[in-house]
Design a protein that fits this description.
single chain; Dna Ligase, domain 1; D-amino Acid Aminotransferase, Chain A, domain 1; Glucose Oxidase, domain 1; seven-stranded mixed β-barrel
């Protein structure tokens, strides 16, 4: 044995300072074991071979010259990348380990077995390049890992394969592009006790939103069995989001989103044969059940917070649950290298100008739009058929697909989640992708002209044809401060995170009905009265949507609270004003099961809507579900920045009845800081502003309805479009009067209507009238801020002149 060489280091003896010795992956494991074990984070034990051990292997087998020759031939285009890679890997696989290396590995393996009380302990054997996982370069997936390895002989075989994998085609390509010297980089091998997640679950988590860069969420993906299927995109995993700022208080359970993945397959240990793992179909019960319970989700979230705080940067973390002990473990942690590196001084927005029925839909990765010709390739052997700048359509991708992914304008896959290979690489490349569509390779034909849209929220869509779209760049630098509070109108929970970089101070209107219509899709009373529903077709649809829910009403509460929580989290701790449902009867009737519960009205706009529903026997139980969702967000999750707003409240008597109904369901004004606002959209709200001010904490002007009712002009009528105008003096006088009276009673007034977003001069008028806040469409925020700042400056100068005179 060569005494001058240190062949291996135990994880608990290394830190992040040892990257040049044991690589980024192994150094990170050692860092966590040493620094974070005392904080409760569990990392499986093991050891790592050193960079010196790799260099000895190169020297003993005289590999430097032949490897250099192969790389030179490739660069000079005498042989292909595939030929060069295959030739170099063959050189490694024919090589022999020194006696010193074999002895060191065998002794350490036996010692690890003693620690876990197993003669032949099962281990994961993972590659860790000495330059990998740097903050601005990710080597993830470039080299190989081998799972469920038993015995010294199999362990040494896996080690040799790891060395050879330093020269996979994708690794060679990556280093060429990043400017790394192939022969300067060494490889360390991590040998780590396997966690029996094949009997439970595993996955990955990020301490940053992987689509928008929003820094205050943790995204957890998980599946049954070994975690390779999440990373490779073989399955559509469960997905959970947690709100980081509220995780430290154990009273809060800030799980703001739960998404059930289809999880059709799982990777488990193989008990015999040559393979160490095998692929299985999951059971119906496994597909319909989350892989983690709430306590486990919260524990992983808190661990992720601790890891991020320790490394002081967003992290990409792998976790596993042991099916024998039921314990959770962290098996890898590395810096996140995409969203955290983006500039925050500008924002690109994409808007689709045409709409069609989508061919397929899946998860949206990024927020861009791409148009072009589809290139359908079902397996990696055919990637040479890829046409540059087309949209790649395939089953799923792995690192071997990277060379063609770089030449694509968009990517569409049948399988995979937000942390799949296709999703990660598309983010790195800055191209949009729609993953986990299920059947894109069947529905989309080769050479079809298609439009891929990731600009419509969490869901990504693929449309037939080349649809028109608009791309804008918004500059966020050098924006003036305004006295008027600038807020946003947000309907979609997914959209909330996309606009977090805008300099707004809260959400002035979060529309509950958007969540009900687009996410829940079911009439709340159809869930309350589910056993007695007469509509068999509706009942069948409800059963499908609510699978896994014994209590059908809980489906409504869970999904509504999740949607509200995501919007509230995006602006925390600034206020988020959530308007209780404001569907008209004809709109409610279109929800699944809605026809049985809605009257037929001649004029729904002026009918059974808003406040009048909440205390009516026709809807009271549905309103109770809305109240339950608000309580879940404020009390269970801890998002107390949520303010409740009552729409279309016609009289003070009606206001009293609604407030009483809310208090009955635990939403009492003032309790635990709860504020309740009222929409000011009916002339009676303005005429009796002093009376409404006694009952509510704030007003929000709904300029569309107020204009309609002041001018007597149907807001939806094309014939009256020239009369319907919020800038009419009668409407403006109403607004001035409301602001004056409200301020006399120390009640805040904002506006959430469309007018200031559409008309810059109307925004100036509102500032002159003394409005406290404006809630704008996100795409108009920057322009209106500049307008408001000018108006405020002019008014201030006018006051100074008047005072001086």
């Amino acid at each position: 044995m060569n005494k001058s060489i240190e062949y291996l280091r135990w994880f608990d003896t290394v830190t992040v300072e040892d990257i040049t010795t044991v690589g980024g992956k192994n150094a990170s494991l050692g860092e966590m074991i040493q620094a974070l074990s005392e904080k409760g984070i569990q990392v499986p034990g093991g050891f790592a071979t050193t960079a010196d051990a790799y260099r000895e292997f190169m020297e003993v087998n005289n590999l430097t010259t032949p490897v250099s020759e192969q790389l030179k031939k490739f660069k000079n285009k005498k042989i292909t990348l595939a030929e060069a890679g295959a030739n170099i890997r063959e050189l490694f696989l024919k090589g022999e380990f020194s006696d010193g290396f074999k002895t060191a590995i065998s002794e350490a393996y036996r010692q690890l077995g003693k620690k876990y009380k197993k003669e032949q302990v099962d281990v994961a054997v993972r590659s860790s390049a000495t330059a990998e996982d740097l903050p601005k370069a990710s080597f993830a997936g470039q080299q190989e890992s081998y799972l469920n390895i038993h015995g010294e002989k199999k362990l040494l075989e896996a080690c040799k394969k790891c060395y050879a994998s330093l020269f996979t085609d994708r690794a060679i390509t990556y280093r060429e592009e990043k400017g790394f010297d192939h022969l300067e980089i060494a490889l360390s091998i991590g040998i780590q006790k396997m966690i029996r997640s094949d009997k439970a679950s595993s996955g990955v988590m990020f301490t940053i939103d992987t689509e928008t860069g929003f820094p205050d969420v943790i995204v957890i993906d998980g599946t049954w069995g070994l975690g390779e299927y999440v990373v490779k995109g073989v399955v559509n995993p469960d997905e959970f989001r947690l709100f980081k700022p509220l995780l430290s208080d154990k009273k809060n359970k800030p799980i703001i989103e739960r998404g059930l993945g289809s999880k059709e397959r799982k990777l488990v240990y193989a008990t015999n044969g040559k393979n160490t793992t095998k692929d299985l179909k999951t059971s119906t019960d496994e597909r319909n059940k989350f892989v983690l319970n709430d306590d486990e989700i919260l524990k992983l979230g808190r661990w992720a917070n601790i890891i991020e705080e320790h490394y002081d940067r967003p992290m990409d973390i792998e976790w596993a649950k042991d099916g024998e002990s039921g314990k959770l473990f962290i098996v890898q942690a590395r810096p996140e290298t995409v969203e955290s590196q983006k500039e925050a001084t500008s924002l690109k927005t994409y808007t689709l100008k045409e709409h069609k029925e989508p061919l397929v839909k899946g998860l949206s990765i990024g927020d861009a739009i791409a148009t072009g010709s589809a290139c359908v390739i079902k397996n990696v052997e055919e990637i040479d058929q890829f046409v540059d700048h087309s949209i790649l359509v395939t089953d799923m991708t792995d690192p071997d697909w990277v060379p063609v992914m770089k030449r694509a304008s968009g990517i569409i896959t049948d399988h995979g989640g937000r942390t799949s290979h296709a999703a990660i690489i598309s983010r790195e490349l800055g191209i949009p992708a729609v993953v986990g569509t299920g059947d894109a390779t069947e529905k989309i034909k080769d050479k079809d002209e298609i439009t891929l849209s990731c600009a419509e929220g969490d869901e990504g869509f693929v449309y037939k044809g080349l649809l028109k779209y608009e791309e804008k760049k918004v500059n966020l630098e050098n924006l003036p401060e305004t006295k008027t509070q600038i807020m946003m109108n947000i309907a979609s929970p997914a959209a909330a995170f996309r606009w977090w970089r805008l300099p707004s101070k809260g959400v002035g209107l979060a529309r509950m009905e958007f969540i009900i219509n687009n996410i829940i899709k079911i009439h709340p009373m159809a869930l309350v009265r589910y056993p007695d529903l007469k509509d068999k077709s509706a009942k069948k649809k409800i059963e499908s949507l609510t699978k896994g829910y014994q209590d059908k009403t809980q489906y409504f509460v869970d999904h509504l609270s999740s949607g509200i929580a995501q919007i509230a989290a995006s602006q925390y701790p600034d206020p988020v004003i959530v308007r209780m449902s404001d569907f008209k009867t004809n709109e409610y009737a279109k929800l699944i099961g809605g026809l049985e519960f809605e009257p037929d009205e001649e004029n729904p706009m002026l009918g059974f809507r808003g406040a009048s529903r909440y205390y009516s026997d026709r809807y009271r139980e549905g309103f109770a579900l809305e109240c339950r969702a608000i309580r879940e967000v404020r009390e269970t999750m801890g998002l107390k920045n949520v303010i409740v707003m009552i729409p279309f409240c016609r009289t003070t008597e009606e206001a009293d009845r609604v407030l009483k109904e809310m208090a009955r369901h635990g939403l009492k004004r003032g309790k635990d800081g709860l504020e309740i606002y009222v929409m000011s959209e009916i002339p009676s709200n303005v005429i009796l502003a002093d009376k409404f001010a006694e009952r509510f904490d704030g007003y929000s002007i709904g300029s569309n309805d107020l204009t309609q009712l002041v001018l007597g002009a149907d807001r939806d009528s094309d014939l009256l479009s020239d009369i319907f105008d919020e800038r009419n003096e009668a409407v403006k006088r109403m607004i001035r009067d409301l602001i004056k009276t409200a301020h006399q009673y120390h009640v805040k007034v904002g506006i959430c209507g469309q007018a200031p977003s559409d008309y810059p001069e109307f925004a100036s008028f509102l500032v002159e009238a003394g409005i406290d806040s404006m809630s704008l469409n996100p795409d108009s925020v920057i322009g209106v801020i500049r307008r408001i700042a000018k108006t405020e400056k002019r008014l201030k100068k006018g006051r100074e002149v008047a005072k001086a005179g």
